[in-house]
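Hey, I'm writing a tutorial for new members on how sequence and structure tokens pair up, and I'd like a real worked example in the thread rather than a made-up one. If someone can provide the structure for the chain below, I'll link this post from the tutorial.
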Amino acid sequence: MSSVSIDGVGIQLATTPTTAGYLWDGRRILLRGFRFCRGVQNIQLSYGAGYPTVPIDLKQAAIEAFALTYRQRVRIGEKSNSMGGQVTISFDMSDVPPRSMAVFSQYRRLAL
């Protein structure tokens, strides 16, 4: 959390346990010496999130998932196609390759 503003008034980060301002514990914002006022869109928060650079394994998993989607653009998930006497087509219902999904899952953060 980099800044908090209520009704256009900037609230500073509380630097000690007794100073007025906002505290951010990673899950919630606490105010000391201020209060959240009723209103519509009267609170502004600024924060930074994410990685400074994309981890290489995450980048590679995304490339592989996009490449697979591109290769399947004509078949749109078609897994097999049989034309011997009757037409039988089956489709793969998984959207993301399992290997890519395993990497994506490592970077997923679930809210508690």
